[in-house]
Amino acid sequence: METDFDTDKIRNEIKDTETITAVGDLVSKVNSLFLQEPNFQELPSDKPIIFVGDLHGDIENAVRIVRKYSKDHRIVFLGDYIDRSTEYLGSLKNISYLLKKKIENPKEIIMLRGNHEFDQIYNMYGFGDELREIDHAFSKDFLWKFTLLFPNMPYIVTTDNGIIGLHGGIPNVESVEEIKNLPKGVTDYNQHPIISQIVWNDNIGDCDNFFDNKGYTYSNRGLSLNLGILYGEPYFSEKMSLLGKKVLVRGHNQNLKGYSLNNKVLTVFSSRRYTNYGNLKGAYVAILDPQKEINNALDLKIEFL
Ligand SMILES: [Mn+2]
Asked: Can you tell me the distance from the alpha carbon of 212 to that of 236, in angstroms, rounded to the nearest whole number?
């Protein structure tokens, strides 16, 4: 009987994505899909939604998730598909596999941008080296294709029942329009503070304290200062009411246990790479019924992988 953990089947699907010459075509096709997709997407309520956290080259978990849920769910990947992979060419296999699935089912597979989908990050943390290792001359073209692809990825999804999904955290905006009108094609997060904050922000885990009268401080994550902010409950509540949503589902932090800020934030992490770190209990996905009334993150279901 076929199970979700049928390793041979998973391996075969992975092998299929190793047809490296086909990757360039995938990238071009998905690029035109991303260009048509709004950066801020209100999702339909016709089927349950799976939120997938950082995968970081964990292709086996990616295949497992798609095989298990794609038939009757919409799947929202929250970013960070590449870098820090523990297996050979893991980042390339993972992103290629997901791009292939995106082409097969563009409306049901949503791929948001994470802070690793920026060339200043992936050139340092693994993906760039993977591509350079395949073939120096060849990979230049590859790198360039991805450099052009990632800036066209969308950033935010919302649901009618009060969920907002993004990679890092809620940016310091004063109106919904500021995030509805995010531009495509931003290659460098330093050039766009709102985009930078969406992919870099964190919240304080399990603690209502905050740092100053603005309710946030600049965080020290990333390669340069002040890319993202670290916020507590007062900042978070204020921004969520501005956006008219109740619960944030995000990835980006392997140290937070799932729920934080009075159970209004759910941190999802779907790579096995970090499961021995911090408080993370394991790699998991979150499941949302978009027709159900949601009051806090406990109303979403967590499923371990
Ligand atoms: Mn991240």
From this structure: 14
